[in-house]
Amino acid sequence: MSYFVSLYVLHKHPYPPFIQKNTKKLIVGTLPPPRFSIGELLEKDVNFCYGSYYNSLWLYMDKIHQLNLRYDNSKEAIEERKAFLIKHKIGVCDIVESAERNKIDASDLGMRNIKLRNILGYLREYPSIETLLFIGGNSKNGPEYFFRKHLKEYGLKLELVSNEILREHQFHFQGRYIQTISLTSSSGSANRAIGSMPLYKQLKASNPQFNTFDFRVMQYQEYF
């Protein structure tokens, strides 16, 4: 008799969507690193959405708004981030509810048996939302990639508005147009892609001190 042992581990999203009644912009990513699903945080991690110190999203927000945030496992660090989101009418609703991974890392490509959240359901529940900010693009298993699949189930699709570095789309839903922006991923794995962008090369050539962190801050500050 033979036995099959699965090498895939189920990771569930540890955080419910963070949305207020007056939320206007919604951050949409995929799934946190596996350590957040099992509660084994690193010293500088924050137990909240995008809490991985190595993801850097909050480092960009900190730089843009001079927040002087804490980076630790404290409740105070969580409350600081919630206060910022509420003040700026920003919500967070990652699109992946759960997925299996065969490697204990944060790569989206390694996910399978993926269960998506009903983003359109949240847009129906919170009609004040005007913009979706995808943290990552349309590559396989990225947030825009999954959202396109989600829309297709309802007979909807994204309409291209701008095909610049930050791609902008829109779609019509319940009598209103909702804008989507595809930001460069905040994870370190995107650094190589940034380094190959003509705009980054141009900015780097004019200022050798310019780096991938600065590039993301330049992008993100327009929308945050």
Description:
Strands 3-2-6-9-8-7 form a six-stranded mixed beta sheet. It is of the alpha/beta class and 224 residues long. The chain is 30% helix and 21% strand. The protein is built from eight helices and nine strands. Helix 2 crosses helix 8. Strand 8 (168-173) and strand 9 (176-183) form a beta hairpin.
Task: Give the key terms.
224 residues; alpha/beta; three-stranded antiparallel beta sheet; 8 helices; 30% helix; 9 strands; six-stranded mixed beta sheet
Summed over residues and divided by their number, the pLDDT gives a mean of 89
**Rg to the nearest angstrom?**
18 Å
Oligomer: single chain
Q: Which structural class best describes the helix and strand composition?
A: alpha/beta
The fraction of residues in strands falls at: 15-25%
What fraction, in percent, of the residue positions are helical?
25-40%
Biggest β-sheet strands, sense, barrel: 6 strands, mixed
Q: H/E element string?
A: EEHHHEEEHEHEEEHHH
The CA-CA distance between the termini, in Å, is: 58 Å
Task: Please report the number of helical segments.
Answer: 8
**Shape category:** globular
The low-confidence runs, each spanning 5 or more residues with pLDDT under 50, are 1-5
**Annotation, overall tally of beta strands:** 9
Strand order of the largest sheet: 3-2-6-9-8-7
